[in-house]
UniProtKB/TrEMBL annotation, chain A:
Segments forming domain Nitrile hydratase alpha/Thiocyanate hydrolase gamma: 16-196
Keyword Repeat (UniProt): no
InterPro entries, alphabetized: CN_Hdrase_a/SCN_Hdrase_g_sf, CN_Hdrtase_a/SCN_Hdrlase_g, CN_Hdrtase_asu/SCN_Hdrlase_gsu, Nitrile_hydratase_asu
Domain of life: Bacteria
Catalytic activity: an aliphatic primary amide = an aliphatic nitrile + H2O
Keyword annotations of the record: Iron, Lyase, Metal-binding
GO molecular function, one term: transition metal ion binding
Transmembrane annotation, as ranges: none
List of residues binding Fe(3+): 107, 110-112
Protein name: nitrile hydratase
UniProtKB/TrEMBL annotation, chain B:
Pfam families: NHase_beta_N (PF21006)
InterPro entries: CN_hydtase_beta-like_N (IPR049054), CN_hydtase_beta_C (IPR042262), Elect_transpt_acc-like_dom_sf (IPR008990), Nitrile_Hydratase_acc_put (IPR023808)
Residue ranges occupied by any Nitrile hydratase beta subunit-like N-terminal domain in the UniProt entry: 3-88
Superkingdom as given in the UniProt entry: Bacteria
Name assigned to this protein: Nitrile hydratase accessory protein
Protein backbone atom coordinates (compact mmCIF):
# COMPACT_ATOMS: atom_id res chain seq x y z
CA UNK A 1 0.00 0.00 0.00
CA UNK A 2 1.45 3.38 -0.98
CA UNK A 3 2.43 5.73 1.80
CA UNK A 4 2.82 9.25 0.50
CA UNK A 5 2.31 11.09 3.75
CA UNK A 6 5.00 11.68 6.35
CA UNK A 7 5.06 8.74 8.63
CA UNK A 8 3.16 9.61 11.78
CA UNK A 9 3.29 5.93 12.69
CA UNK A 10 5.92 3.25 12.25
CA UNK A 11 6.45 1.88 8.77
CA UNK A 12 4.31 -1.21 8.43
CA UNK A 13 6.45 -4.23 7.51
CA UNK A 14 5.28 -6.41 4.61
CA UNK A 15 2.61 -9.01 5.39
CA UNK A 16 4.96 -12.05 5.54
CA UNK A 17 7.18 -10.17 8.01
CA UNK A 18 4.17 -9.67 10.29
CA UNK A 19 3.30 -13.35 9.98
CA UNK A 20 6.84 -14.31 10.99
CA UNK A 21 6.61 -11.95 13.97
CA UNK A 22 3.31 -13.60 14.92
CA UNK A 23 4.89 -17.07 14.84
CA UNK A 24 7.81 -15.83 16.88
CA UNK A 25 5.48 -14.25 19.47
CA UNK A 26 3.35 -17.36 19.83
CA UNK A 27 6.27 -19.77 20.05
CA UNK A 28 8.18 -17.54 22.48
CA UNK A 29 5.14 -17.28 24.74
CA UNK A 30 4.87 -21.06 24.72
CA UNK A 31 8.53 -21.28 25.67
CA UNK A 32 9.37 -23.19 22.50
CA UNK A 33 11.65 -20.55 21.09
CA UNK A 34 14.31 -18.41 22.71
CA UNK A 35 14.66 -15.00 21.01
CA UNK A 36 18.34 -14.80 21.97
CA UNK A 37 18.98 -18.08 20.18
CA UNK A 38 17.19 -16.75 17.10
CA UNK A 39 19.46 -13.69 17.10
CA UNK A 40 22.47 -15.94 17.45
CA UNK A 41 21.41 -18.11 14.50
CA UNK A 42 20.87 -15.02 12.35
CA UNK A 43 24.23 -13.56 13.36
CA UNK A 44 25.97 -16.82 12.57
CA UNK A 45 24.55 -17.15 9.08
CA UNK A 46 24.73 -13.45 8.30
CA UNK A 47 28.21 -12.71 9.54
CA UNK A 48 30.22 -15.76 10.46
CA UNK A 49 29.43 -18.52 7.98
CA UNK A 50 30.18 -18.08 4.31
CA UNK A 51 32.15 -19.35 1.33
CA UNK A 52 35.39 -18.50 3.13
CA UNK A 53 34.87 -21.67 5.20
CA UNK A 54 34.67 -23.85 2.10
CA UNK A 55 37.53 -22.00 0.42
CA UNK A 56 39.79 -22.75 3.37
CA UNK A 57 39.00 -26.45 3.13
CA UNK A 58 39.55 -26.57 -0.63
CA UNK A 59 42.85 -24.70 -0.34
CA UNK A 60 44.00 -27.16 2.29
CA UNK A 61 43.03 -30.05 0.01
CA UNK A 62 45.17 -28.53 -2.75
CA UNK A 63 48.02 -28.00 -0.34
CA UNK A 64 48.00 -31.19 1.70
CA UNK A 65 47.62 -34.50 -0.21
CA UNK A 66 46.87 -36.55 2.90
CA UNK A 67 44.09 -34.15 3.89
CA UNK A 68 42.76 -34.26 0.32
CA UNK A 69 42.59 -38.06 0.37
CA UNK A 70 40.83 -38.05 3.72
CA UNK A 71 38.26 -35.48 2.57
CA UNK A 72 37.51 -37.39 -0.63
CA UNK A 73 36.99 -40.69 1.15
CA UNK A 74 34.97 -39.42 4.14
CA UNK A 75 35.03 -35.75 5.05
CA UNK A 76 32.77 -36.04 8.09
CA UNK A 77 35.38 -36.74 10.83
CA UNK A 78 37.48 -33.80 9.67
CA UNK A 79 34.49 -31.47 9.25
CA UNK A 80 33.39 -32.29 12.78
CA UNK A 81 36.87 -31.54 14.04
CA UNK A 82 36.87 -28.22 12.17
CA UNK A 83 33.36 -27.45 13.43
CA UNK A 84 32.12 -27.19 9.84
CA UNK A 85 29.43 -29.86 9.97
CA UNK A 86 25.72 -29.29 9.55
CA UNK A 87 23.41 -29.15 12.51
CA UNK A 88 20.71 -30.55 10.26
CA UNK A 89 22.51 -33.87 10.26
CA UNK A 90 23.40 -34.02 6.59
CA UNK A 91 26.29 -35.97 5.19
CA UNK A 92 28.82 -34.15 3.00
CA UNK A 93 30.49 -35.46 -0.11
CA UNK A 94 33.37 -33.65 -1.81
CA UNK A 95 33.47 -34.14 -5.56
CA UNK A 96 36.70 -33.27 -7.30
CA UNK A 97 37.01 -31.70 -10.72
CA UNK A 98 39.64 -33.25 -12.95
CA UNK A 99 40.77 -32.94 -16.56
CA UNK A 100 38.14 -35.56 -17.40
CA UNK A 101 35.12 -34.43 -15.40
CA UNK A 102 33.48 -31.20 -14.25
CA UNK A 103 31.06 -31.42 -11.33
CA UNK A 104 28.15 -29.14 -10.58
CA UNK A 105 25.66 -29.16 -7.71
CA UNK A 106 21.92 -28.49 -7.56
CA UNK A 107 18.98 -29.28 -5.32
CA UNK A 108 16.00 -30.11 -7.51
CA UNK A 109 13.71 -30.67 -4.52
CA UNK A 110 14.21 -27.36 -2.74
CA UNK A 111 17.57 -25.77 -2.09
CA UNK A 112 19.66 -28.11 0.04
CA UNK A 113 23.09 -26.58 0.27
CA UNK A 114 26.20 -27.06 2.43
CA UNK A 115 25.47 -24.16 4.78
CA UNK A 116 28.43 -24.64 7.13
CA UNK A 117 30.84 -24.44 4.20
CA UNK A 118 29.14 -21.93 1.90
CA UNK A 119 26.59 -20.02 3.99
CA UNK A 120 23.16 -19.20 2.61
CA UNK A 121 22.69 -20.02 -1.09
CA UNK A 122 22.47 -17.19 -3.62
CA UNK A 123 19.11 -16.37 -5.21
CA UNK A 124 19.87 -18.08 -8.51
CA UNK A 125 20.61 -21.39 -6.76
CA UNK A 126 17.09 -21.28 -5.34
CA UNK A 127 15.43 -20.24 -8.61
CA UNK A 128 13.25 -22.59 -10.64
CA UNK A 129 15.30 -21.73 -13.72
CA UNK A 130 18.56 -23.06 -12.31
CA UNK A 131 17.05 -26.02 -10.51
CA UNK A 132 15.29 -27.29 -13.60
CA UNK A 133 17.76 -26.40 -16.33
CA UNK A 134 21.08 -27.48 -14.82
CA UNK A 135 19.86 -31.07 -14.95
CA UNK A 136 18.40 -30.84 -18.46
CA UNK A 137 21.09 -28.83 -20.18
CA UNK A 138 24.09 -28.45 -17.87
CA UNK A 139 26.50 -27.34 -20.56
CA UNK A 140 24.24 -24.53 -21.73
CA UNK A 141 23.67 -23.30 -18.18
CA UNK A 142 27.38 -23.50 -17.36
CA UNK A 143 28.14 -21.50 -20.52
CA UNK A 144 25.78 -18.79 -19.26
CA UNK A 145 27.88 -18.68 -16.10
CA UNK A 146 30.93 -18.23 -18.34
CA UNK A 147 32.16 -21.79 -17.88
CA UNK A 148 32.78 -23.50 -21.20
CA UNK A 149 33.29 -27.23 -20.86
CA UNK A 150 35.18 -28.77 -23.76
CA UNK A 151 33.35 -31.51 -25.68
CA UNK A 152 35.59 -34.31 -24.45
CA UNK A 153 35.01 -33.44 -20.81
CA UNK A 154 32.22 -35.06 -18.86
CA UNK A 155 29.77 -32.96 -16.84
CA UNK A 156 28.33 -34.60 -13.76
CA UNK A 157 25.36 -33.03 -11.97
CA UNK A 158 24.90 -33.87 -8.28
CA UNK A 159 21.41 -33.52 -6.85
CA UNK A 160 21.54 -32.61 -3.17
CA UNK A 161 19.06 -33.89 -0.64
CA UNK A 162 18.32 -33.10 2.97
CA UNK A 163 20.61 -35.95 3.97
CA UNK A 164 23.37 -35.62 1.38
CA UNK A 165 25.05 -32.45 0.22
CA UNK A 166 27.91 -31.89 -2.15
CA UNK A 167 30.80 -29.51 -2.50
CA UNK A 168 32.82 -29.24 -5.68
CA UNK A 169 36.59 -29.14 -5.35
CA UNK A 170 37.68 -27.00 -8.28
CA UNK A 171 40.91 -27.70 -10.13
CA UNK A 172 43.91 -25.93 -8.76
CA UNK A 173 44.91 -23.20 -11.21
CA UNK A 174 48.21 -23.33 -13.08
CA UNK A 175 50.96 -21.10 -11.82
CA UNK A 176 50.28 -21.60 -8.13
CA UNK A 177 53.15 -23.96 -7.31
CA UNK A 178 54.62 -23.23 -3.94
CA UNK A 179 51.68 -21.04 -2.88
CA UNK A 180 50.64 -21.11 0.74
CA UNK A 181 47.20 -22.19 1.90
CA UNK A 182 45.91 -18.68 2.61
CA UNK A 183 46.93 -17.36 -0.80
CA UNK A 184 45.33 -20.39 -2.46
CA UNK A 185 42.08 -19.85 -0.53
CA UNK A 186 41.75 -16.40 -2.11
CA UNK A 187 41.36 -18.09 -5.50
CA UNK A 188 38.45 -20.30 -4.43
CA UNK A 189 35.13 -18.60 -5.18
CA UNK A 190 31.70 -19.64 -3.98
CA UNK A 191 30.62 -20.50 -7.51
CA UNK A 192 33.69 -22.66 -8.05
CA UNK A 193 32.54 -24.80 -5.12
CA UNK A 194 29.01 -25.10 -6.57
CA UNK A 195 30.51 -25.88 -9.95
CA UNK A 196 29.09 -22.89 -11.81
CA UNK A 197 32.53 -21.29 -11.76
CA UNK A 198 36.19 -22.16 -11.78
CA UNK A 199 38.89 -21.17 -9.33
CA UNK A 200 40.37 -17.80 -10.18
CA UNK A 201 43.53 -17.82 -12.22
CA UNK A 202 46.34 -15.75 -10.67
CA UNK A 203 47.41 -12.78 -12.73
CA UNK A 204 51.09 -13.15 -13.55
CA UNK B 1 31.55 -14.24 -9.89
CA UNK B 2 30.78 -13.99 -6.24
CA UNK B 3 29.91 -10.51 -5.11
CA UNK B 4 31.73 -10.32 -1.78
CA UNK B 5 29.22 -8.05 -0.11
CA UNK B 6 26.08 -9.81 -1.34
CA UNK B 7 23.93 -10.01 1.80
CA UNK B 8 23.08 -13.50 3.04
CA UNK B 9 19.43 -12.49 3.41
CA UNK B 10 17.68 -9.94 1.19
CA UNK B 11 15.16 -8.94 3.85
CA UNK B 12 15.21 -9.13 7.65
CA UNK B 13 12.15 -11.37 7.73
CA UNK B 14 13.91 -13.91 5.47
CA UNK B 15 16.57 -14.22 8.17
CA UNK B 16 13.94 -14.43 10.90
CA UNK B 17 11.89 -17.20 9.32
CA UNK B 18 15.08 -19.07 8.50
CA UNK B 19 16.32 -18.81 12.11
CA UNK B 20 12.95 -19.82 13.50
CA UNK B 21 12.96 -22.97 11.37
CA UNK B 22 16.54 -23.91 12.22
CA UNK B 23 15.87 -23.30 15.92
CA UNK B 24 12.75 -25.51 15.91
CA UNK B 25 14.66 -28.22 14.09
CA UNK B 26 17.56 -28.03 16.52
CA UNK B 27 15.21 -28.30 19.48
CA UNK B 28 13.69 -31.42 17.97
CA UNK B 29 10.28 -30.26 16.75
CA UNK B 30 10.79 -31.72 13.31
CA UNK B 31 13.43 -33.62 11.39
CA UNK B 32 15.21 -31.80 8.59
CA UNK B 33 14.35 -34.36 5.87
CA UNK B 34 10.65 -33.92 6.70
CA UNK B 35 11.08 -30.17 6.48
CA UNK B 36 12.85 -30.41 3.11
CA UNK B 37 10.13 -32.68 1.75
CA UNK B 38 7.32 -30.35 2.83
CA UNK B 39 9.18 -27.29 1.59
CA UNK B 40 9.94 -28.95 -1.74
CA UNK B 41 6.24 -29.71 -2.16
CA UNK B 42 5.28 -26.08 -1.48
CA UNK B 43 7.88 -24.82 -3.96
CA UNK B 44 6.61 -27.23 -6.57
CA UNK B 45 3.01 -26.11 -6.04
CA UNK B 46 3.92 -22.42 -6.23
CA UNK B 47 6.10 -23.07 -9.27
CA UNK B 48 3.18 -24.50 -11.24
CA UNK B 49 1.69 -21.08 -11.86
CA UNK B 50 4.82 -19.03 -12.31
CA UNK B 51 8.58 -19.24 -12.39
CA UNK B 52 10.01 -18.72 -8.90
CA UNK B 53 12.96 -16.35 -8.85
CA UNK B 54 14.57 -17.63 -5.66
CA UNK B 55 14.15 -14.34 -3.79
CA UNK B 56 11.06 -13.18 -1.91
CA UNK B 57 8.90 -15.94 -3.41
CA UNK B 58 11.31 -18.54 -2.05
CA UNK B 59 10.88 -17.35 1.52
CA UNK B 60 7.13 -16.89 1.07
CA UNK B 61 6.99 -20.60 0.21
CA UNK B 62 9.26 -21.26 3.20
CA UNK B 63 6.96 -19.33 5.54
CA UNK B 64 3.84 -21.05 4.22
CA UNK B 65 5.49 -24.45 4.81
CA UNK B 66 6.43 -23.53 8.37
CA UNK B 67 2.94 -22.18 9.12
CA UNK B 68 1.34 -25.37 7.81
CA UNK B 69 3.74 -27.54 9.77
CA UNK B 70 3.22 -25.66 13.05
CA UNK B 71 -0.54 -25.57 12.56
CA UNK B 72 -0.54 -29.32 11.93
CA UNK B 73 1.53 -29.97 15.03
CA UNK B 74 -0.68 -27.73 17.12
CA UNK B 75 2.29 -25.55 18.04
CA UNK B 76 0.83 -22.43 16.44
CA UNK B 77 -2.64 -22.81 15.03
CA UNK B 78 -3.66 -20.74 12.04
CA UNK B 79 -6.30 -18.75 13.92
CA UNK B 80 -3.86 -17.71 16.64
CA UNK B 81 -1.29 -16.70 14.03
CA UNK B 82 -3.82 -14.49 12.26
CA UNK B 83 -4.93 -12.88 15.54
CA UNK B 84 -1.34 -12.18 16.54
CA UNK B 85 -0.44 -10.92 13.06
CA UNK B 86 -3.34 -8.46 13.21
CA UNK B 87 -2.23 -7.36 16.68
CA UNK B 88 1.27 -6.66 15.34
CA UNK B 89 -0.22 -4.70 12.45
CA UNK B 90 -2.21 -2.53 14.85
CA UNK B 91 0.89 -2.06 17.00
CA UNK B 92 2.88 -0.77 14.04
CA UNK B 93 0.09 1.53 12.94
CA UNK B 94 -0.41 3.00 16.39
CA UNK B 95 3.22 3.49 17.38
CA UNK B 96 4.88 6.79 16.59
CA UNK B 97 7.50 6.61 13.87
CA UNK B 98 10.91 5.94 15.37
CA UNK B 99 9.56 4.57 18.64
CA UNK B 100 10.03 0.88 19.42
CA UNK B 101 6.99 -1.18 18.42
CA UNK B 102 5.71 -3.47 21.12
CA UNK B 103 2.80 -5.81 21.05
CA UNK B 104 -0.28 -5.13 23.12
CA UNK B 105 -2.40 -8.23 23.08
CA UNK B 106 -6.06 -7.73 23.57
CA UNK B 107 -7.19 -11.04 22.23
Amino acid sequence: MPHDHDHPHSLLPPDPALRVKALETILTEKGLVDPATLDEIIDTYQNRIGPKNGAGVVARMWHDPAFRDAMLSDPMPMLRELDLYGRQGEHMVFVENTDAVHNVVVCTLCSCYPWPLLGIPPGWYKSDAYRARIVREPRAVLAEFGVDIPKGKKVRVWDSTAEMRYLVVPQRPEGTDGWGQDALAELVTRDSMIGTGLAMVPTP
Amino acid sequence: MTAPDEPAFEAPWHAQVFALTVHLNETGHFAWPDWAKAFGATLKRHGLTRELNGGDDYFIAWLETLETLLDGQGLADAQAVETTRAAWERAFLSTAHGAPVTLVQDA
